[in-house]
Here is the input.
Amino acid sequence: MYTYEELKEFVDHCHRCPLCQTRTRSVMGQGNLHGEILFIAEAPGYNEDRDGVPFTGKSGELFDRLLDEIGMKREEIYLTNIVKCHPPGNRDPYPEEQEACIPYLKYETALLRPKIIVCLGRIAAQRVIRPDYRITKEHGMFLERKNTWLTAVYHPSAVLRDPAKLPLIQEDFRKIRELQKQLTSFPNN
Ligand code: URA
Ligand code: SF4
Here is the structure.
């Protein structure tokens, strides 16, 4: 087993897929390694590619607001992406790029051992939960796998494009917080 610092070193210098040729820098996940909730988004955007930190742009502002509304801060959770390098022009990451990068996410998950995994958006949900996951129909529903609860919510950028989704994602965040409180008060469940 590698340490977290070793894993970050690998990601910082990774050349496993062609996104390494166009990135400014890799974006390792960030947050509390002892946190109970792991959020998984899609890929670094333009701002993240420049800053080296997940969700620093407008979507990040919304993400922070959603956390704040359920009384949480980024420092309490861990946030990462399916691919760690910015796809040019913000296109969806190709399946082969996801495949090349997924071992890092598996490693982050193994080190973190989260109680709850929340996919942000369709791309993450289809990679982590099920290839035919329907975010519109299934967001906010929980399923249990290997002692971890899995769910997905809309991607914050989808909510920014369509404000009608805001109350839906707010409700899903409340449910996530509720579940986390339950799991904390009954730690053996
Ligand atoms: N969108 C994502 O999916 N991830 C980020 O880190 C930023 C924007
Ligand atoms: Fe490596 Fe992932 Fe970046 Fe591809 S996206 S170069 S696999 S860190």
